[in-house]
């Protein structure tokens, strides 16, 4: 896109300053103080806020294999509506991307249907079965990293082998920590495997990333990890930051893995996010069909959607009341994932335009029936959300635009 976003509050170096964003050839040409007069053909952004495009390091786009739940097209439309210009897609697909050929099936669909940048994760093990190493070297040039998301790798020897190979390739291992000796409801299922992984990560020197952390013990382990010599980062999701077990009802839309835990866990995650121990916020956007989420908590599949509500919920419920600095949230949703996964997005002159324009004064209830995602299952139905995304540019292209 060429043009000018005139007279906005632009997020630069960790704070807002008034400016106009000049776009040329799909890149940010310059950001300069707004003139008195609006440039011809410019988009009036007076009163609006321009953020770097967000990056979600953990989404499920369900293609290939499960297009009844979501497609690359619908999932990336939802991402753009939430202000995301890049997403990293998990490999629990059919075929599972566990080598260059199966990965190519997914890459072809991305080339065809993605509205924003989609960087896939390759599987860590063949078929995500935890028994045999996937072809990491064959996939390395095309992926954000490697993950068996959805399953914990139970065998420590297998995990060590995977980490050694990923370290050699200088790629991230993103781990779904779940020790199957414990029920998912027990926080030990998460933190015991995280503790094992952090030890292995320190030994193998791999870039290790823990997915969707949900409990206080995990935050404490992450706080110690750097001291023990591990190159470790982690993410949590909006539902672990905003909900605790007391709010969970017997409905499928509260069912995800790991589950919503106790109030102390939520508070520890927020503290970790505030002090940087928890570096990333990712949605774990995991759409299912209506039927799969119907019939109460226990019969529903694990997973809720999150791309279209993540920023606006966290902004209204954490940033506005002063519980989380805005700069922490913006870094957790853009700078931190970009640095970790080597994604060259950012809001600065000379870079491809990846940004989102928000009306932060707009407030309204979450209404899943309006989602662009095929998944409609959210624990936040009816919650107030603050801020409305008006436009998202992804690597220079308009991925979403409404009301501006
Ligand atoms: Zn996931």
Molecular structure report:
- The chain has 2 domains: about 5-50 and about 350-400, Urease, subunit C, domain 1 (Roll), CATH 2.30.40.10; about 55-340, Metal-dependent hydrolases (TIM Barrel), CATH 3.20.20.140.
- Helix content is about 30%, strand content about 25%.
- It has 11 helices and 16 strands.
- The two termini are about 15 Å apart.
- Zinc ion (ZN) binds near residues 58, 90, 149, 284 and 286.
User: Which fold name fills CATH's third level, the topology of the largest domain?
Assistant: TIM Barrel
Distance between the termini: 15 Å
Radius of gyration: 20 Å
Kindly provide the name of the CATH class of the largest domain: Alpha Beta
Low-pLDDT windows of residues: none
How much strand? Answer: 15-25%
List descriptors.
single chain, 404 residues, alpha/beta, Urease, subunit C, domain 1, TIM Barrel, 11 helices, 16 strands, 29% helix, binds zinc ion
How would you briefly describe this protein structure?
This protein is α/β, with parallel strands linked by helices and 404 residues long. It has 11 helices and 16 strands. Zinc ion binds next to loops.
Secondary structure elements and their pairing?
Blueprint: E1 3-12, E2 15-24, E3 27-32, E4 43-44, E5 49-52, E6 54-59, H1 72-81, E7 84-89, H2 100-113, E8 117-122, H3 136-139, E9 145-146, H4 156-169, E10 172-175, H5 188-204, E11 207-210, H6 216-225, E12 231-236, H7 238-242, H8 263-275, E13 280-281, H9 290-293, H10 310-319, H11 326-341, E14 355-365, E15 384-394, E16 397-401
Parallel strand pairs: 1-4, 1-5, 6-7, 7-8, 8-9, 9-10, 10-11, 11-12, 12-13
Antiparallel strand pairs: 1-2, 2-3, 5-14, 14-15, 15-16
This protein binds zinc ion.
Zinc ion binds next to loops.
């Amino acid at each position: 896109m060429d043009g000018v976003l005139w007279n906005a509050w632009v997020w630069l170096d960790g704070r807002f300053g008034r400016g106009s964003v000049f776009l040329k050839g799909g890149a940010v040409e310059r950001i300069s103080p707004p003139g008195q007069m609006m440039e011809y053909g410019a988009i009036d952004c007076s009163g609006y806020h321009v953020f770097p495009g967000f990056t979600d390091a953990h989404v499920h786009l369900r293609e290939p294999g499960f297009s009844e739940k979501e497609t690359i097209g619908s999932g990336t439309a939802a991402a753009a509506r939430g202000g995301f210009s890049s997403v990293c897609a998990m490999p629990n697909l059919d075929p599972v991307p566990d080598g260059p050929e199966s990965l190519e099936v997914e890459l072809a669909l991305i080339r065809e249907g993605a509205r924003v940048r989609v960087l896939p994760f390759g599987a860590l093990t063949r078929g995500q079965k935890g028994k045999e190493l996937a072809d990491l070297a064959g996939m390395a040039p095309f992926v954000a990293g490697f993950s068996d998301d959805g399953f914990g790798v139970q065998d420590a020897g297998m995990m060590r082998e995977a980490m050694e190979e990923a370290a050699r390739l200088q790629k991230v291992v993103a781990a779904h920590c779940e020790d199957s000796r414990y029920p998912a409801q027990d926080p030990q299922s998460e933190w015991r495997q995280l503790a094992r992984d952090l030890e292995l990560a320190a030994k193998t020197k791999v870039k290790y990333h823990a997915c969707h952390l949900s409990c206080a013990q995990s935050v404490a382990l992450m706080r110690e990890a750097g001291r023990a010599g591990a190159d470790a980062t982690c993410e949590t999701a909006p539902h672990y930051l905003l909900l605790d077990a007391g709010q969970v009802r017997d409905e499928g839309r509260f069912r995800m893995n790991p589950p919503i835990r106790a109030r102390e866990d939520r508070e520890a995650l927020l503290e970790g996010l505030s002090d940087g121990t928890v570096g990333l916020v990712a949605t774990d956007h995991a759409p299912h069909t209506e039927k799969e989420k119907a019939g109460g908590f226990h019969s529903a599949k694990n997973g809720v959607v999150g791309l279209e509500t993540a920023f606006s919920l966290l902004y209204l419920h954490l940033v506005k009341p002063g519980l989380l600095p805005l700069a922490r949230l913006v870094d957790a949703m853009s700078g931190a994932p970009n640095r970790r996964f080597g994604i060259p997005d950012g809001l600065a002159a000379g870079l491809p335009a990846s940004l989102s324009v928000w009306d932060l004064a707009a407030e309204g209830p979450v209404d899943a029936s309006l989602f662009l995602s095929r998944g409609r299952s959210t624990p936040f139905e009816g919650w107030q959300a603050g801020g409305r995304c008006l436009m998202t540019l992804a690597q220079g292209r308009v991925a979403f635009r409404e009301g501006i």
